[in-house]
Amino acid sequence: MIDLIQAELEIRRILNVRYSNIKTIDIYTKRFMDFVRYYPATEPIDIKEAELNAYIKVIISKKSSRSLIMQFIQVAEYYFNHIHKKSFVIYRQNIPSAREKEINTLEQEQVFLMIDNFENMKHRIIFVLVYSCCLELTELLNLRVSDINSKKEPFYLQVRNASGDVVRKASISPKIIEYLNEYWQTCITKPQEYLLEGPEAGKKYGKTSAEKVIKKAFEENGMVSAFVVKTLRRSYMEHMVSLGIPIISILEKLDVHHFDSIKKYTRAIHGSVKIDFTPLDKLIGKPKINEPEIEDLEQLVFTLNSEDEKEYLLEAIQCFRAGALKAGIVFSWSSFIRILQNRCEKKGYKAINEASAKLKFRKKFEKISDFESIKELNLLKLAFELKVISKHQLSQMENNLDLRNHCGHPSSYKPEINKAKAFIEDLVNIIKNEP
């Protein structure tokens, strides 16, 4: 039997070389590990072409979705042919066609996956800018090299209309600048005037070609949309609303001011909202933690490896946004505990049991779920003994455990916003900085 933990760590290491988004890595790791478990007695590197293709036929016969099958084929192609130079001819017949159901918006996870699947950097930047800056194709193709301000904050690009006039500024983040730099570095002939140029220097990239790039990305991920650019733009709006930005602020930033347009977009994002109560009938929540205070938590989500670590932290962020400080503290603490358990496990069960015996816990650890039967204070002590956290961090988290206990049990205790902020800061620093 192969070591599944080691196999998962190895595939994650390999995928980290190519993919930058943790959600993409999680999806491909899951697909690959399902394959590894299908051949439990064979090391992945020793699996033959015929065995690989037999597995693909099995998942097709189980009527798996097109996206699942294509995700596995992509990770298998990368692992066997790109990393290990196997030259396998991978079975691609009888794969179900893209689903016929028309989609109006994408899940954020789907967007990340599609971005990471681009091998052509020009094609990737087309997709990235349409989505992240909510651009029409005309606005994208009118972008000039001089329209990009990536040297001094605030970073932005100037958006031009069909006539070439600047109509607005679109914010771009360091992540977008990273994508732009990767694109620029891969250009053998650097763009002369427009950011995206065709074969002839100084001439814009074709509108039809740009739309085909986006449409192909949809099709390769098993999705159908007659209006792919519209779908990307609507996804941007829906995702920004989910992140706490009012739709009216988004539309104002996009230079949409006509009442009928505002009404159309508001209804598309929020649907028809029935108002059948007054402010006398419902209580308004307590003051919430503002966005700048939870940005570090949001960035942490992208660095976490397991779904349960991320799930707790995402729920904590939603609670903090809503002003539910007690719930936010409890959920973020749960995420920290799961991260601590996973980091202890990486030390190996031999070291864990030696530390446990030294601390006189009378507990034998054999699997990750065994951590759930010890008190959280003892987990902190075990993590310190294993050098997962430092002495100073142990002291910090013992204090934060008290705060978590106050919030997690019925009482009249109400945490102050400053205490919640300090709690977040401690967690972020410890998770980001292993001793």
UniProtKB/TrEMBL annotation:
Name the record gives this protein: Tyr recombinase domain-containing protein
Gene Ontology MF terms: DNA binding
Methyltransferase as UniProt keyword: no
One BP term from GO: DNA integration
Origin: domain of life: Bacteria
UniProt source species: Putridiphycobacter roseus
The UniProt record lists the keyword Secreted: no
Record domain Tyr recombinase: where: 101-281
Keywords: DNA recombination, DNA-binding
